[in-house]
Amino acid sequence: MADVLLDFTPLSDVNPYVNASWIKPTGSIDGKIVSGRFVSSNTTNAIYLYNGIPTPVSNEITVNVVIGDFTGDASASRGSAIMASNGDGYFILIRSTDLRVYKTTAGGGANTLTQIGSTATITAVDSDDFLFGYNTSTGAIRVLQNGVSRFTATDTTHIAA
Q1: CB-CB contact of 118 with 110 (8 Å)
Q2: Cα–Cα dist 125/23, whole Å
Q3: What is the pLDDT along the chain (161 residues), one digit of tens a residue?
Q4: How many CB atoms lie within 10 A of CB 40?
Q5: pTM greater than 0.70 (yes/no)
Q6: What's the confidence (pLDDT) of residue 110?
Q7: What does the CA dihedral 27, 52, 10, 14 come to, rounded to 10 degrees?
Q8: How far is it, in rounded angstroms, from Cα 125 to Cα 8?
Q9: What is the pLDDT of residues 122-153, one digit of tens each?
Q10: CB-count exposure of residue 112 (10 Å: 0-12, 13-18, 19+)
């Protein structure tokens, strides 16, 4: 099971979405729940950060997100991140046609991004289940879409984080 599991399908529609376990970073706008999906309240990025420390199983931190609203907006990016409190870490951006994995530069936080590997071509639809994992011991990165491997790489930049 993922360290963080995001499934908004049981939630009622609400605008804005507020949860004490989540932090909305400076510059982000409100997110909302529509038909069991977390979406932006307008055409700008809605980013919420889980305010917790995961307990990885077998040294792998994982985030499992049921992503949706590709039908409503096929070109927008969705994603999740595994980051230390200083912003060092990794994140995935998913569109209806591709996914990309990025890392931050050590000490540079989210303002310094480098893509890891190549852009992976996928076909994503509403309610796809994406698992994003990072092994804190080996640097192995993996992305699964509905249980099928879509991306693998190794990056040891943030093992200590």
Answers
A1: no
A2: 27
A3: 455 656 677 778 888 878 777 777 666 777 788 777 777 766 666 677 777 666 677 888 888 777 766 766 677 777 788 887 777 888 888 888 999 999 987 666 556 788 999 999 999 887 788 888 999 899 999 999 999 999 999 999 888 66
A4: 18
A5: yes
A6: 57
A7: -30
A8: 16
A9: 998 877 888 889 998 999 999 999 999 999 99
A10: middle
**Residue 92 to residues 11, 75, 133: CA-CA distances in angstroms?**
24, 15, 10
Q: Among all chains, which residue has been given the structure tokens 């909302």?
A: 32
Distance separating alpha carbons of residues 112 and 87, to the nearest angstrom: 10
d(CA 103, CA 37) in angstroms, rounded, equals: 26
DSSP string, 111-133: EEEEEEEEEEE----TTEEEEEE
CA of residue 67 relative to chain centroid, distance: 10
Alpha-carbon span 150 to 93, nearest angstrom: 13
The pair of three-digit structure tokens given for residue 15, joined into one six-digit string: 């605008």
